[in-house]
Amino acid sequence: MLRKEIAMPEDTQKASIFDRHLTVRQRLAADLLTGALVKGRLANAYLLTGRIDVDKWQLAKQMAAFLNCERTRSYWQNAQSDHQPAQNLLGLPIADEVFEQANKSLAAFAMPEERSCLAKSQSGDVVNMCRDCRWIQEDAHPECLYKLGPAGATASRKISVESARAMTETLARTSSAFRIIIVEDATQDVFHRPSANALLKTLEEPPEHTMFFLFAENAESVLPTVVSRSQVIPVPQIPFSDGDAPELPNLSFHKAIKESGSKRARAYLSALDFSQAVLKAADTLIDDDDNQRVAISRVVDYVLKEEFERLKVRAMESLNESKYLADLLELAEEAKSRVDHYVNAKAALESFSIAWARLAQNMQVLD
């Protein structure tokens, strides 16, 4: 069922529920998660892709802290209503027939004015940690934070079916906490089909106030049945720069490919033209202090941010758009890495642009 669009609050881009350092390092993930919270559209499960596990853990733990901290938990608790029939994780209605009610409730989901104790502490602020944030920080919360992984006493790297079933039984019990379940390695080598099947129903329809965070380097290493039930959010190793945008001509990949028409051959030619424009723009940034590799990285960051801004609101609710952005960041990381290792810049950018065109057409995000 298609949902009508809710306008994004203007201040969503100016704040975050996460600590200041994490927000700068992982701007895309912080914006997507904070925006989904503000819109009352948190997903049941998030698949965090990339190689930076420490940032994945912080995103999951700081989300858990925000939803349970004594400073911030009233943000979602006070906005709930007992008479709403079809609700998402935050208690807002999602059915079309009650959508107007959701719009009225949206005022209760203005940008949070407060961060959790944990986020404030990680930002470097002096704060007296509440009990829940202290437990979350120490990975010792008895109700809020759960980890699903291989049993420590066995030699197998796989998550057992028994562990998955036990997690389902645990979550079936009522709790006053907003529960976060972390699958630290969600690749199919570890979270294999039998154990995933035992948890699929819970992933798709978790108990009230329950959310999953699954970790993997890329979505392709995870079972498709798990990916289809998760919102993919990239946690890149080389996040795009949060500095000032370089002074560049209008570089719109979206415009270049869309205007080329639906034929792939024509789109690929437009992609090659776009790669030349990127290379030319990078040349204008090279001075005595910068080399070509740094300049190309800045331009790639710039065009990625443009694409992210175009699709950010849609990606908060769409599995397709969020996975597209995750895949695109992987392509960009690979391209920048190749240039950084002295692969011919022209060839690397041409390969990146054609792969981008293929990805955008396959995932139908050019409208």
> What class, by secondary structure content?
alpha/beta
What Rg is obtained from the alpha carbons, in whole angstroms? 21 Å
- Poorly predicted runs are 1-13, 81-88, 91-108
Largest sheet: 5 strands, parallel
Named CATH architecture of the largest domain:
3-Layer(aba) Sandwich
Averaged pLDDT, please?
78
Our count of helices gives 15
So what's the CATH class of the largest domain? Alpha Beta
**Element-level helix/strand string:** HHEHHHHHEHEHEHEHHHHH
Helix content: 40-55%
Number of strands: 5
In spatial order, strands of the major sheet run 2-3-4-1-5
Q: How is this structure best described in words?
A:
- There is one protein chain.
- The chain has 367 residues and is an alpha/beta fold.
- The chain has helices spanning 20-25, 27-38, 53-68, 74-77, 99-105, 117-122, 131-137, 161-172, 193-204, 224-227, 253-258, 264-285, 292-315, 319-340, 345-362, and strands at residues 45-49, 145-148, 179-183, 210-216, 231-234.
- Helices cover 49% and strands 7% of the residues.
- Strands 2-3-4-1-5 form a five-stranded parallel β-sheet, sandwiched between helices.
- It folds into two domains: 10-234, Rossmann fold, CATH 3.40.50; 253-362.
Topology (SSEs and partners):
Layout: H1 20-25, H2 27-38, E1 45-49, H3 53-68, H4 74-77, H5 99-105, H6 117-122, H7 131-137, E2 145-148, H8 161-172, E3 179-183, H9 193-204, E4 210-216, H10 224-227, E5 231-234, H11 253-258, H12 264-285, H13 292-315, H14 319-340, H15 345-362
Parallel strand pairs: 1-4, 1-5, 2-3, 3-4
Helix pairs in contact: 2-13, 3-7, 8-9, 12-13, 12-15, 13-14, 14-15
